[in-house]
Design goal:
Blueprint: H1 9-17, H2 19-26, H3 31-57, H4 82-111, H5 117-142, H6 147-170, E1 179-180, H7 184-210, H8 227-254, H9 259-284, H10 289-311, E2 314-315, H11 326-334
Helix pairs in contact: 1-2, 2-4, 3-4, 3-6, 3-10, 4-5, 5-6, 6-7, 6-10, 7-8, 7-10, 8-9, 9-10
Length: about 325
Amino acid sequence: MDGVPNVTRADAAAAVRNPLAFIAARWTPDPRTVRRAALVALVMSVVIVVTGGAVRLTGSGLGCPTWPKCTEDSLTNTSEMGVHGVIEFGNRLLTYVLCAAVGWAIIAARSQKPFRRGLTRLGWAQFWIVMGNAILGGIVVLVGLNPYTVAAHFLLSTALIAVATVMWQRTREGDAAPRPLVGKAIQQLVWVLVVVSVLLIAVGTVVTGAGPHAGDSSEVERMPIDWETVSKVHAVLAWVVVTLTFALWFVLKAVDAPKGLLARTRDLFLVLLAQGVIGYVQYFTDLPEVLVGLHMFGSCLVWIATLRVLLALRERPEEAAGLPGPAVEATLTRA
């Protein structure tokens, strides 16, 4: 059995000064490890949205009535707070799991050889979004679940999902300049699809802010907008997204586009159809909590699928600079 290498005082000092560089100098992860770390961070960014929705749908938004402590006198929930305290505090604990997942993605990206600065920055971007959203979540509690802060909280989570999706995609690509796979007209159509999808998600937060699920059993402020009217606007935007997706798929078939882009467009279309079915059923059944939660999960999947279509418009091969040059190869051969 190999012995554990001795860690000198200089090593310990280096680890304290820059722990990521210290780890990277002693560990090179397999590319699959980096991809899996990025995927875990993406999955956790979706999980935190779904569990946050569960907090609201169970009326547990003020289960911990203050922040950063759960109560004025306790960091954690107490037995007197009941199930609402457990649900709210449990969601707060999941933030630490999300931080761990994002931290693992950063470490894996930083340790990859050759060093990929862009990939590491995407990991750090996730970290700072998580920190900002944690603070915003505390503000949501302190202002008594104000619907505008709740909407901002969800939109920032959507931004986190976007960055996590891009990082997951980039772990399977090289660092060369992106090379377009389709023409300018198709690229513009996809960007219109992305913009309308953002509007769809934003209006969805207004539906939530004006709807009946306020997040707590107490009197909670709601957005002064007719809920049914804004729901209809949301439905119209959803049909626009579905129509754009179908039009994109038709155009891609006509121009014999790459199979990967065509497959991702098909996947988006199927996710949209499933999301639409859930949306209409929940509307006509007076918004049962389970279906609302599924609709929130579907919103995350729609956003990820839309971004995957956007990212499939180009390819990024390995950079030639990242490969051993002739002189290096000769040195390695002689060795």
